[in-house]
Amino acid sequence: MSKIDSSEIGGDEELDVADACAAVPSGVDRTTESTRSVDLILAAIVSFAPPLAFCLAMWLWYAGVHAPTWIDLFVMLAINFFSLAGVELGFHRLFAHRSYKAHRSIKIALAALGSMGFQGPPIWWASIHRKHHRYSDQPGDPHSMYLYDKDGKFTWRGALHAHIGWVWTGRSVGQGGFARYARDLYLDRDIFWIHMHYFYFLLAGFLIPGIVASLLYGSWEGFAWGILWGGFIRIFFMNHLTFWCINSVTHGVGRRDYDTSDHSTNFAPLALLTLGQSWHNNHHAFPISAVMSHQPWQLDPGAWILHGLRRIGLVTDMNLPTPEAILKKRQAKNNA
Ligand SMILES: [Zn+2]
Ligand SMILES: [Zn+2]
Questions:
Q1: Average pLDDT by stretches of 10, the chain with 336 residues
Q2: Which of 176, 182, 280, 317 has the CA that lies 20 to 30 A from 133?
Q3: The model's pTM
Q4: Residue extents of the structural domains in the chain
Q5: Is 138 helix (H, G, I), strand (E, B) or coil?
Q6: How many angstroms separate the alpha carbon of residue 141 from the centre of ligand 1?
Q7: How many angstroms is it from 275 CA to the middle of ligand 1?
């Protein structure tokens, strides 16, 4: 596997946000300079609106107003797939870890689609994630569950923090030093532009399923069902199952094939739903690998998509661990 040093993924090098932004076309980074009240409003919306929307949909069904249809489910699954691909293949494997190179059109598409997932703007997401890898399950990790016990043991309070509590925690979401962890991303004009216009893409994540459902239903009423199922309910399932379970479940439940310095695990049941990210112990063992699976039976849809894009020339330079490197790390665990 090719090496990448810490400075290449943000590193310890200090860089003032204003200096970084000066190199790109426009203004102030609103997401970095957001106030605590804005952070709390966003945390409240993403925590409560999706489950309330799900309850509303169930009540509408129970009351005989609207039973979910194949159009609702199609719209929900379709936008879930695309926004999840934007997060996992874009925010995570490409921006945070630079595990492969992509054609500019793919990079822009993934940044835009990922921004529809209500998981935060791309540079914020990548910065938080790089910090997670740097301090994984140690003080400084934005969303570790093991920091509430003096011996680093599991606590339910810690599990709640890892799953969703961290989005309410100022020191996790409002951390300083975004530029320190994502200098390269601030200097990428395309990613920075989408980062600065994040809220428009977030809004598009509601409007697009609304418009598609409206067309498929052939009525304006369909617009509301599209926003309900393709917007809020899609975010409810996507963020709990893919975003937050990676921080909670795959740092606590499952197999550990590698003796990494954190508590990361491989958890097969979430492999398809997370496009392969639930092979999280593999990922912490080889963080800049473009593929998460290390065995033929480990399903990794994200890798399948990247290999497909590589075949048509839109993705190049995929970092892949060699079989020898995998074997060596596995043996190191067995010998420990
Ligand atoms: Zn992790
Ligand atoms: Zn990662």
A1: 38 40 40 68 89 95 96 97 96 96 98 95 91 89 84 84 85 70 89 93 97 96 97 92 84 92 94 95 95 95 98 96 92 78
A2: 317
A3: 0.88
A4: 6-335
A5: coil
A6: 9
A7: 15
